[in-house]
Design a protein that fits this description.
Elements: H1 14-23, H2 28-42, H3 44-50, H4 56-68, H5 74-89, H6 95-109, H7 116-133, H8 139-160
């Protein structure tokens, strides 16, 4: 079996650059709500197929959704997000589940770290690629799927973008 990457996608690709530019135009709440919703719709199911019966990530998403509605405090939700991150680290024996769990936990972390609204997509691309084609493919196959996943994310974020956002996030990309 080829060595699998934890993340898939190219930070210098047109899709990734488009995502970064879109992210720079939105506020933290818009980005977090989009990231949590996108992870719920696209990556939570992959995790739940790999780990049936485990509701930790679903509960984390629900907690983040409640927080984004104004229910609760950030200090209450951070430990829940941290627990989801630990769950992902504990799944080293299942690369598909681990990538999906990392995607979900990182998307949830966007409630306090805006750059996570981009980072979760690289884990999600790996989860999607491994889920769709298995763990035996070469880099070319995985990279093609990752590119399509990032294109899909660009389209999704465009749908929720607030035009002329008054208070966009200030991010420094370290990639």
């Amino acid at each position: 079996m080829p060595k699998l990457r934890k993340m898939l996608g190219d930070v210098n690709s047109a899709e990734c650059i488009a995502l970064m530019r879109l992210i720079e135009t939105q506020n933290e709440r818009t980005l977090a709500a989009w990231a949590v919703g996108y992870a719920k719709d696209n990556f939570l199911g992959i995790y739940e197929n790999e780990c049936p019966g485990n509701v930790c990530l679903r509960d984390t998403i629900l907690a983040c959704e409640e927080y984004l509605k104004g229910n609760g405090k950030l200090c209450e939700i951070k430990p829940v997000i941290k627990e989801a991150g630990q769950l992902a680290r504990d799944l080293a024996d299942n690369p598909t589940a681990q990538a999906a769990a990392r995607a979900v936990s990182t998307a949830c972390a966007s409630v306090h770290t805006p750059t996570s609204a981009l980072g979760f997509l690289f884990y999600g691309a790996a989860a999607a690629a491994y889920s769709q084609t298995g763990l035996e493919q070469g880099a070319e196959v995985y990279d093609k799927i990752a590119s399509k996943e990032l294109e899909k994310a660009v389209d999704s974020l465009k749908q929720v973008c607030v035009p002329d956002e008054a208070h966009p996030v200030k991010v420094k990309w370290n990639c």
